[in-house]
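Re: the request from the purification team.
They wanted to know what the chain is likely to look like in 3D before they choose a buffer screen. I agreed to run a prediction and write the result into the notebook, where they can find it.
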Amino acid sequence: MEHITSTPTVKAPVERFTGDVYLNPIEAPTEPARLASALVRFTPGARTNWHSHANGQTLYVTDGVGLVGTRDGNVARISAGQIIKCPAGEEHWHGATDTTLMAHIAMVVGNSDGDGTTWLEPVTDDQYAQAVNSKH
């Protein structure tokens, strides 16, 4: 057994996120396990870039209210206790609403090349505004 009392909070890389986002790693993929997980905290208006995961991604919301958007225009409003599953290869983004913080535990099953995430371009302000104003 290993008891980890805390992990350092780091600011998320600006190349992959818009706004202020903070990460606390939970689990890094180590053979033979391939689970990567982190607690991710988004300030109002903050969000990921578009991205996809080779083996999909599961998000468990721990606090606040957020949004998850897909390329086809679907938007889900998410809140504490809810789970979102993004299938393998689906391009999506997630983040806080424009007025509320959101925190989630992000979980991905990696592959032999790492966590299997493909990072893409930022979500534009127009795309984000459409998601905020959409009927969920």
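For the purification team: The chain is about 5% helix and 45% strand.
Please add any questions underneath this entry.
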